[in-house]
Structures are given as C-alpha cells and as structure tokens.
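Kindly go through one protein, given below as sequence and tokens. The question is how this chain folds according to its tokens.

***
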Amino acid sequence: MKQMKKLIQNIVLLTPLLLMLASCDQFLEKNPDNRVDLDTVEKAAKLLTNAYSSSAYTFTDWMGDNVTYTLGTFKLPEHVQAYQWEDITPDNQDTPTYFWTATYDAIAHANEVLAVIDNLPGEQSRKDAVRAEALLTRAYGHFMLVNLFARHYNRQTALNDPGIPYVEEPEREFIKKYNRHTVEEVYDKIERDLKEGLRLVDGRYYSNSGKYHFTRNAALAFASRFYLFRDDPDNCINYSSEMLGDDPDIFMKDLPTILDTYSDTEEFLRLFTSPDDPSNLLLIRNITNAHVTVGFWPDIDLIDNLYLQNPWSATDLRRSDRYPLFVRGTNGVAVGKYEFLFERSSLTSNVGLNYTIMPAFRGEEVLLNRAEANVYLGNYSTALADLQVYINKRYEEKPIVSLSSLRNYYQTTNNEIAVLSFIVDERRKEFIHEGIRWFDIKRFGFPVDHLTESGNVITLEGNDLRQVLQIPQAAIDVGGLEPNPR
C-alpha cells in the first residue's frame, strides 16, 4: 500500500511536493503504470484508508475569534500569517497548502478505486460498499476544499464565484491543466457523489473500525452540514432527522457522566474521541501540531467570557472544575479534547510526527444544524425542543430554554435573531479547537478582532476578501489556476 500511495500522488497542480522531483527525465524514465495492481475488492478497500485527508484544518482557529495573542508559545511564520490574515506561504503541516496537498492526495486514492471497482470480481454488495466509501470521501474532500478556498455558498453568486477543481479521474499525465469550477458546479458534483454514496453505503464490512470510515450515520451527518451550507433547510432537516432518529439524546456526548467517572486527563481525552461514544460519527487520524504548544490560543478571560455567560446564569459543564484545561505558554489555555499521540519515523528513532484522532462529524453538530434549519422555516418550538436535548447534556441545572429567555438574553424582540444567536454561540463553545467556528464566521460575515504583540487591535471585517484562503502558489504558477482576489 505504501508503494501505491507513493505512485499515485496527484499532479504538480494539486500536489506541490512533486516540484521537488530531481528531474523530469528521471521521472519519465519510470513506467507510469508501475504500480500495485488493484485486482481485488479487498485491495481497493484497503487503499481507501488513504482517502481520508491526513491534514487537519484547525489552522483556521488561529484566524478566528477563539484565540488571542498568546505569550510563550512557539510561533512559526505560518502561525503569525494566519493570525494576521496574511496569505500563508509555507507548506508545512497545519497550513492551507498542506491541507490542499493532503486532501487532493486523498481524493486521488478515491479516484483510483472508483476507476476499477466496477470491473473487479467479487460480491456486488461488497463492491457497492467500497464504491460508496470512495464517493463519500471524494465528496467530503472537495467539500472541505471549496469551503476553505472559495467564498461561502450564496445562491445569488455561486454560479459565478470561482470554486476549486473537482477531480473525478485518476491522473495519468505528468502535467495536466485544471480549471476552477464555480462554487455552484462544485456543490452540484458533491451532491451527486454524496447521494450516490448514501444510496450504496453499507457499514457491515468495516468490522470493528466503523467510526474510521463513512458509515451511513457519518454520511447523513455530512449531508446535514452540506445542505445547511447550501441554504436548503428542508433537506438539512430531512437528513439530520434520519441520522438522529427518535431519540437524539443518544448522539449527545454524555458530558455529565464522563466528568463524573474519568480518573485522569489522559482517560478524559481518550473518552472524548472514543469510537465507542455514540456522538462521534466519523474519526480521522490527522497529522498536526495544532494540539501542542504552538501558535495562538484563548486566554482564561476569553474562556470565561465564552462559558460563564448564558441566558440562565447556569453552570456550563465545559467550564466546571472537573473539565480539564491545559496551559499553553504563559497566558494561553486549551480546552481538553485531543490525545497527544506521536508516531516515530522508525522503531529506533526519537523523531517523528505529532498526530491525534479528530472527530470530523459529531452528533451535536447534526442536532444544532437541524435546530438552525428549523429557525429559518419558523419552526421555533421544534428548534427549542432540539436545543433542550442539547442543553440537558451541557448545563448542570438543565435550565428550560424558551423564546422569552433567549429574547431577554440577546435583548431583541425578534425570535429568529434570538434563537439563531444562541445556536451560533453554542456551536462556538461546543466545537472550540475543532475548526468549525471559521465556517460560521464566513457564513454570517462576523468580524474578527485580534490583539497584537504591541497591544494594538487588528480587525478582519465580515466582508473581507481574506476570509477566503489563497490558492497555493504552485497551483497558480504551474497549474495556471486563478488566484483568489485580495
């Protein structure tokens, strides 16, 4: 599998690392089809373990409003560039270029499987399950790319807004030119792959590793987010409801029980991302330094402002004495979520890569998505019912959520503003350090203020073009892709 992974790296446009090849002659001397044959369904299924991007997108946290200037943390140029909303030029891990490269590489693996799976011998249901996973990973990879490197979907502008290349075939040419599809076109292709993947997905073949693959629940959670972002509340509700079933409480992380029973912080972190937790719908192994003492973090004042304020002055379990916080530098803190894992480059080596297991989808997001979609349709009682399920697992006193309590807290007579504001605030708290806040900043056009080392405040306005990440330089120079405007 390692040989295959190396040989099917994507083209120069999509994987800038290929620029480091010694020479074109050296490359062209090799048979482009000198690869491990995908001649069985089992080989195809194994290859799909590489169809999930190894790169985290938590670098968006350094761009968002959940951090401040952190003293005493190690800051590489890319950390400072992200914090100051400059184009991030390095291609190290935890950068947009690294995410672009790793994600298109993952898509390349999915495309290799899709090119052969129908012609392989074997049971049709098994082939359908492999095809479904390949389609879902391809759709998810492109979905994350378009939401980072293009404007957020807007019905009025999506037909003209430049998106990203949607790659649907294995690369057989050394240098192939791609065009940026529009955001509308990318979303249409994602929807096509997502629907077909949902039709065929079958988790029976994942043995004991289901949460590390696109199960049906994970695919439904993806659909929930996709249709919310596409401004389609009806479909968001439909797919969310299918995933949550009759008892959405099952898919809420049982924080009260975890806090009452964990023995030490290491156990808490294992429990938070455990595949046995029903709230964790899809888990991905990400190579990242974002969970160690680098870059920028919230300070205790920011954490208190987030978690100590709510409509009922209730005790937020995420800020209780039992919930672990970690020190970052001199004034920074991190909310306990991820295990600190390390992979040695060899058995006898002391060097290697930091990595962690990150939830790509959680039940809490699906519930909040459905509540938000119901707000847009004016179904406030239904939205409040979902929020009550959520609140019961996050606030010690289990306060009653009502329109009046939310209107009073947000000082508005507008029900939509009151309920939507609460949902957005809770999503910000729930998914801190998980990268999701950045999408709300883009969706709603929130401004972001950052304190600089000198004590000044810089602001990214809600309509700033820099909310869209810049296309990697190699894709511009070699691939000819148009850069995003600045």
The chain has a mean pLDDT of 91. Residues 124-149 form the longest helix (26 residues). The domain at 1-56+94-206+447-486 is CATH 1.25.40.890 (Serine Threonine Protein Phosphatase 5, Tetratricopeptide repeat).
